């Protein structure tokens, strides 16, 4: 299938929550890569509530003497009861800076995972931080800017949206993941300002999101609620978007 990266321009729109929510509902095995340069593992501290001992992380992967491709299987850890596995992020923001020269190698290794029947979701955190995994964002089949629909969030995302749209500089295929459509601005208003297509929308539901954000118990009727339904729709939309992208690339190659 693909490598899909998620990031934000500012604030806390729910990049990590969205990434893990998509992964838990993914229809086939998927690897989550915690590439947030802030440091720390949101999966270990949040979804797994600190009940799992820390193990090898991205720094161990980058420094492996065998190289990233060969070492990748050794640092991947499963999430029990799911078809999700993950690579924990660097433990501190200082370590994230040391990964700068290794992001490109990791991007190549992740792209090769498709041959094993495995997809990849990258949690890239906030844009513009020291150690930001820009090569992962640029190389992903699709990169989504997760953004809320209030004025501060849209304003912060605007300059980044302009940058990533530039040919040769920006992302291969960029799009928006809206959180809280209509609070107060509509999807049409947001995409008109940012100039990026909306791939999917998520409900602004803190109670449901807490299931993935901090490992809270699933509320009653969670599976049929608006948040879970939106995650399912987002997964379908991502598959459609990737299929469209690859079809366009195939048609260009035939010309």
Q: What report would you give on this structure?
A:
The structure is a single chain. It contains eleven helices and eight strands. An eight-stranded mixed sheet has the order 3-4-2-5-1-6-7-8, with helices on both faces. The chain has one domain (3-254): Rossmann fold (3-Layer(aba) Sandwich), CATH 3.40.50. The protein has 255 residues and is α/β, with parallel strands linked by helices. The longest helix has 29 residues, at 226-254. Helix content is 43%, strand content 17%. Strand 3 (77-78) and strand 4 form a beta hairpin. The chain is globular, with a radius of gyration of 17 Å.
Overview in brief:
Helices cover 43% and strands 17% of the residues. The protein is α/β, with parallel strands linked by helices and 255 residues long.
Which fold name fills CATH's third level, the topology? Rossmann fold
Specify Rg, calculated over alpha carbons: 17 Å
How many beta-strand elements? 8
Distance between the termini: 24 Å
Helix content: 40-55%
- CATH superfamily placement: P-loop containing nucleotide triphosphate hydrolases
Class based on secondary structure composition and strand pairing: alpha/beta
**The CATH architecture:** 3-Layer(aba) Sandwich
Approximate shape: globular
Low-confidence stretches: none
């Amino acid at each position: 299938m693909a490598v899909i990266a998620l990031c934000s321009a500012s604030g806390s729109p729910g990049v990590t929550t969205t990434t893990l929510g998509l992964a838990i509902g993914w229809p086939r095995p998927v690897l989550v890569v915690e590439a947030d340069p802030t440091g720390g593992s949101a999966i270990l501290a949040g979804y797994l509530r600190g009940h799992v001992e820390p193990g090898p992380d991205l720094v161990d992967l980058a420094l492996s003497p065998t190289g990233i491709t060969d070492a990748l299987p050794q640092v991947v850890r499963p999430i029990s009861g799911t078809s999700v596995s993950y690579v924990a992020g660097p433990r501190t923001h200082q370590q994230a800076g040391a990964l700068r020269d290794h992001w490109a190698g990791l991007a190549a290794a992740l792209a090769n995972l498709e041959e094993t029947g495995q997809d990849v979701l990258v949690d890239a955190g906030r844009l513009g931080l020291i150690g930001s995994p820009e090569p992962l964002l640029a190389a992903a089949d699709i990169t989504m800017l997760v953004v809320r629909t209030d004025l501060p969030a849209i304003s912060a995302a605007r300059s980044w949206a302009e940058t990533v749209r530039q040919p040769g500089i920006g992302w291969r295929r960029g799009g928006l993941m809206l959180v809280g459509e209509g609070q107060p601005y509509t999807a049409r208003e947001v995409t008109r300002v940012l100039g990026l297509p909306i791939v999917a929308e998520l409900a602004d539901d803190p109670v449901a999101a807490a299931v993935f954000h901090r490992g809270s118990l699933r509320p009653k009727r969670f599976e049929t609620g608006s948040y879970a339904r939106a995650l399912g729709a987002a997964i379908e939309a991502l598959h459609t978007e990737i299929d469209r992208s690859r079809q366009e690339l195939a048609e260009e190659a035939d010309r």
